Amino acid sequence: MQQKHLLTACEAMAVRFEIFIPQRPTASLRAIAEEALREIREVEQWLSPFLPGSEVYAVNACASQNPVKVTPLLYSLLMQCNAYSQQTNGSFDITVGPLMQLWGFRSANSSMPSQNDVEKCLLKTGMRHIVLNERDSTVYFDCPDMKLDFGAIGKGYALQRAANILRSHMIDAALLHGGSSSITAIGCPLNEAGWKIPLSTPLCSQPQVYALLTNTSLSVSALHGRYINTSEGSYAHIIHPATGRPVSHTLTAAVITDLAEKAEAFSTSLLAEGAAMHAALLQQGAIGLLTQNPAGRIEISGNGFHLTS
Length: 309
Known about the structure:
31% helix; T-fold; globular
């Protein structure tokens, strides 16, 4: 039986990326999809702070001593991250790497840090310490031991670039995802109102909500997956940039926007701040917002999220 769609995938950023195109998988279509996957892998190669040959690795190693000249791609992304930080009142922050290390999310060993250690670490985090020089295309850290970490936006950024490649080849319907938590949609399936994406939450294994995407992107941030265990309890891997401590008051945050990278940045912020952030993010261009608190209460704002019947 002849296939009616193309599904192709790659591993990058420690997750599985997939591209689904509802067209007969011709050789030319496969080549287009492979070009998009190659772009995702290339983004990882220069964006990862853990790969010794990456551009971000080099910036982290040297930018505390001298300004480092960076490529136009990285400079543009840094400018965009700075804008997202301002739009979220600082709750999206690509400098929380030292805090992740302090809490043990970057190593096999974890222990409860003292409040004094947290406060010391906060001194070397914050977007205010990134000095960008547009004329020279350089980045400089004005305090020692700072590190860039694009974990809260990297998958969305890669998906956005991959989707742009598909669009440049006139692909008018496709669904792309990275680790199932970041999803971007091109067009919609034939005779459908959009791509229907069910959302499961930590307190309910059966989806209670679905997102409907048409030329939009979805990002889901949640307190499950990666934990550390200390003598005082278990903590999830999302750090609030203002307090330096793991987030606990919101279980799930989901955002629909026009761009995959924006959706990731905003969902990180929404998980950190909770439902009180709904109105502010709508003003900054979010299309739909969803939060679930530890009591199980789900709040929805804007458009795109629907309760299952």
